[in-house]
Amino acid sequence: MATIQNIKGMRDHLPQAMLLRQHIVTTLQQVCERYGFEPLQSPVVEYAEVLEGKLGDDEKLIYRFEDHGGRRLALRYDQTVPLARVVAQYAGQLAFPWRRYAYGPSYRGERPARGRYREFYQFDADIVGSPSPLADAEIVALLSESLAALGFPDFVTLLNHRQIIGGIARISGLDETAAGGVYRAIDKFDKLGADGVREELLRSGVDPAAAEQILALVQIEGEPQAVLDELDARLANDERAVAAVVNLRAIVAALAGLGIPAARYTIAPRLARGLAYYTGLVFEAITPHWPEGSLLGGGRYDELIGQFAKRSIPTVGLAFGIDRLHDVMEQLKIGPQPTGTAVAFVTIFGPEQAQASMALASELRAAGLNTLLSLEPNAGLGKQFKEADRKGARFALVLGPDELAQGDVVVKDLRSGTQESVARGAVVEWIGNSLNLSTATP
RNA sequence: GUGCUUGUAGCUCAAUGGCAGAGCGCCUGACUGUGGAUCAGGAAGUUGCGGGUUCGAGCCCCGUCAGGCACCCCA
Prior knowledge:
Layout: H1 15-34, E1 38-39, E2 45-47, H2 48-51, E3 64-66, E4 72-75, H3 80-90, E5 98-107, E6 119-128, H4 133-150, E7 156-161, H5 162-171, H6 180-187, H7 189-203, H8 208-218, H9 224-234, H10 239-257, E8 265-267, E9 281-286, E10 296-300, E11 315-321, H11 322-332, E12 344-346, H12 354-366, E13 371-373, H13 381-390, E14 395-398, H14 401-406, E15 408-413, E16 419-423, H15 427-440
Parallel strand pairs: 1-5, 7-8, 12-13, 12-14
Antiparallel strand pairs: 2-4, 3-4, 5-6, 6-11, 7-9, 9-10, 10-11, 14-15, 15-16
The structure holds one RNA strand of 75 nucleotides.
């Protein structure tokens, strides 16, 4: 007998969850298109070698398998590496800079936890083929507007730069290749505090003086300008870090120019991020209501696409975690709380009146109103009203013998409980007006 | 992948090793041609699954699957 259950870490999304998920995706899509992004979709399955060699340690989490022809395949780990493949493959057909968004599932063989699954949906947005700090700023602005549009009351985007983290490691006398443990320790600052990070640094072989220096740098906070001035001064001997500060200044200036409120972002030297392909700006959006992790993350990866294409194609982008956004919104009760998609429910008084009710439902649908038709001519009106209520329909319509004789329809507003007789020919208009009224004055 | 923890009706949870229960939900009816209120009835379970100990296991032991938490890492 087949096992009746879903795969660990992979979920079924029932209607109530799907309604919120679709709302999230639609909102993100609208914001993206407002910024001039175009849609892209690519397969979930890639040749394993396409994904290999780009992710560093995370590679062990890739789902791999062989197809019937013995080809080594893999489920995509994110949508960024497949994007790189697509860009390299179709470079001649794309107009750069290319702004694209993509939505779909990715797969990682991790231990599942709250907000973290083996099959998870991401909504990505990237600007391909521009090294300009304006591109970085557009991505961060897009992020900020998207979370605002979804109704997140408070979130902050932490901004940092790979070469600032690198500079912190270098100035402390560590060579870059051995600095992985340092990045990981730094990244835990918010969780472990200064003492915890110090302990972690010493354990990974950093000498005490260097550890103190790292801790001091990592704890710099304040207005973006002040933080950048401070980093500039302290990392003055490191050419690449200085360049990174200049880059971040340009990005922050552009964010101000784009009208993103200053409270929405901050320079955070402690932000590391694990993915190996980032080369410049890195960022994460966090909210105090979700201590488990970030809502989304991203950054600039100027060399990744070059691994597929013959020339380097600088790119910056981000990935929203739809499952995580959904979990947080559900917990915080933000966004719509829809119970269904129907506006109208057409009852059937009895077998004699069934044809008339069908015609009415058909007419409402033709007018673009989401309409449910009762499936039980022999059920009492009470039962049918109950169904209308549970499906979240706003209006229940009755076409009984009296109405048919008089040429009208009883329309009951299930939210207010009031009802009235409406001339048969005016029903669509009447419902339309009621909906407009109620959205104008909520 | 490692450690800890949980799994009982659709949901939230009770039940000293001794007859498996409650609330909510669900179904039927009382109510005029009408939901969400109230009242009266009803259905519902191989206690995640498989083994073991015991006269007797929801409870103890082993395994397994799934959820949660911590590590790891990230969306």
